[in-house]
Amino acid sequence: MSTTESAERYLKVLLGSETRTDLVALFHRNPGLIDTAEGIGRRIGLVPGAVQSDLEELVATGMLTKKKFGTSEVFFLNHAKDREIQDSIAVHLQNLKP
Amino acid sequence: MLMGGFMEKDAVMLAGSAGAGKTTLALQYLVSGVQSCAEPGIYVTFEQLPDQIYRDAKNFGWDLQKMEEENKLRVICTSPDLLFTTENGESILDVPIDDVRPRRIVIDSLSHLSMFSEGKNFRLETYRLISWLKMKGLSSLLLWETSNMMGQISSITDTGLSFLVDSIILLKPVEIDSAIHKALVILKMRGSDHDKKLREYEITSSGIMVAAPFANYEGIMSGNARRTAGLEKATQNFTDAFSRKRH
Question: Which of A33, A34, B75, B162 is most exposed, with the fewest beta carbons within 10 Å of its own?
Answer without folding.
Answer: B162
